[in-house]
């Protein structure tokens, strides 16, 4: 049952999952979840803001998990380990921001708190009165007499994520505006010769002030056909762990190959997509990270790529995820991230799929795959190339059609010239 605005419920679970959700519909803005850890109503520093560009709190108490899709729905989630929240933190505000529109255009917006261990719903609040707001505080976890509670809030901001962040004490990195040109001064009179002034020794310059902390960057990078690539170093995201997420949903209306896909999904049940990666290391070693053959890889040893697991239902809120250890970027020559259809459909047609690359440091990078118009069962998502001084992320979004008797993996190999030997595998 949904809570009324301002109501509160006790939270007895030691760890919770906070899920923002809404119905997918044409023209719906992109919505992003965030959390602010507050002391006396403000953050202690910019590090107390957890969102897509800063996905983990230093204490390990709060983590941004990212987006997922289901039938007709989209979710964005946070994990909160209440036992690890620092003692001076009084509240954890759960907020959302809308990119490309306002919350009046986001149907069915809700927030719910789930027991992370059992999945049981602890609290739920459905927003009913959003209009022109572009940022929203949906609820908050707060301490009361040594115990945690959740309160529904429903307070909006028309100034977006920037306005919400600054209201709680976040320093936001704003683009520099060009200064107005100074007025042109009249020409000075002709100089009059004067005796040279006596020489003197200038005073020593004052010590430079301590460097101010870098303000929080709220921007995201969206790759398109016209702007398909981005430098990780220019985004400040070329170190730490980078998570790659693929989320998808089946469109409701079918046509062409989509009609065949609709029947395939109906016949075979849930759609099972597999996120994979071909890698080539600087020492010449090549391989694949995938669920087939249990080749899940490793994060802290070659190939420095790890597949989290295999979502066989196709309905997981978190989609498919893999991680790349950018601290070992000098050992990566190139990586092709791709996806295959394992079962449930004969083509990617009429799928809405989104790829998000979330560096541990730096801006999130995302893009959509667009429409598939061919009977494709394998799609290359992104190509990551070591240029020698940087890692370049290139949006691929190439729907490939395997030849008869050729596997999706071998098809990717042919397209990118990996030259590997392939044998049948199963999971």
From TrEMBL:
Pfam families: TerD (PF02342). Residues 176-214 are annotated as: Disordered. It comes from the Bacteria. Residues 1-168 form the TerD domain. Residues 183-212 have a biased composition (Pro residues). Gene3D superfamilies: sav2460 like domains. InterPro entries: Stress/Tellurium_Resist (IPR051324), Tellurite_resistance_TerA (IPR017115), TerD (IPR003325). PANTHER family: CAMP-BINDING PROTEIN 1-RELATED, GENERAL STRESS PROTEIN 16U. Belongs to the CAPAB/TerDEXZ family. This is TerD domain-containing protein.
């Amino acid at each position: 049952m949904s809570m009324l605005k301002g109501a509160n419920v006790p939270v007895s679970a030691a760890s919770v999952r906070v899920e923002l959700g809404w119905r997918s519909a044409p023209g719906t803005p992109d919505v992003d979840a965030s959390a602010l850890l507050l002391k006396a109503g403000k953050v202690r520093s910019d590090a107390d803001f957890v969102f897509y560009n800063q996905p983990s709190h230093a204490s390990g108490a709060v983590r941004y998990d990212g987006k997922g899709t289901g039938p007709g729905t989209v979710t964005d989630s946070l994990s909160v380990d209440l036992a690890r929240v620092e003692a001076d933190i009084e509240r954890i505000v759960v907020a959302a921001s809308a990119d490309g529109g306002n919350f009046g255009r986001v149907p069915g917006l809700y927030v719910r708190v789930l027991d992370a261990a059992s999945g049981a719903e602890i609290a739920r609040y459905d927003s009913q009165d959003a209009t022109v707001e572009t940022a929203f505080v949906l609820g908050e976890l707060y301490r009361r007499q040594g115990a945690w509670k959740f309160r529904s809030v429903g307070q909006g901001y028309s100034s977006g994520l920037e306005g919400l962040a600054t209201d709680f004490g976040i320093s936001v990195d704003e683009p520099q505006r060009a200064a107005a040109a100074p007025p042109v001064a009249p020409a000075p009179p002709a100089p009059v010769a004067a005796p040279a002034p006596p020489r003197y020794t200038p005073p020593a310059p004052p010590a430079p002030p301590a460097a101010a902390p870098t303000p929080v960057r709220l921007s995201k990078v969206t790759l398109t056909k016209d702007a398909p690539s981005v430098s990780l170093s220019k985004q400040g995201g070329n170190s730490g762990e980078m998570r790659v997420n693929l989320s998808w949903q089946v469109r409701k209306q079918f046509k062409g190959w989509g009609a065949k896909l609709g029947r395939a999904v109906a016949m075979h049940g849930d759609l099972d997509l597999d996120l994979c990666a071909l890698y080539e290391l600087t020492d010449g070693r090549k391989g694949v990270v995938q669920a087939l053959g249990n080749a899940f890889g490793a994060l802290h040893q070659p190939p420095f790529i790890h597949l989290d697991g295999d979502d066989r239902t196709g309905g997981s809120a978190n989609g498919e995820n893999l991680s790349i250890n950018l601290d070992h970027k000098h050992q990566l020559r190139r990586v092709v991230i791709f996806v295959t259809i394992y079962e449930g459909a004969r083509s990617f047609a009429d799928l809405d799929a989104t790829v998000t690359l979330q560096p541990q440091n730096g801006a999130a990078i995302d893009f959509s795959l667009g429409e598939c118009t061919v009977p494709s069962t394998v799609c290359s998502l992104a190509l990551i190339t070591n240029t020698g001084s940087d890692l370049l992320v290139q949006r691929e979004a190439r729907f490939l059609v395997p030849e008869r008797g050729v596997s999706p993996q071998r098809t990717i190999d042919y397209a990118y010239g990996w030259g590997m030997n392939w044998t049948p595998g199963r999971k």
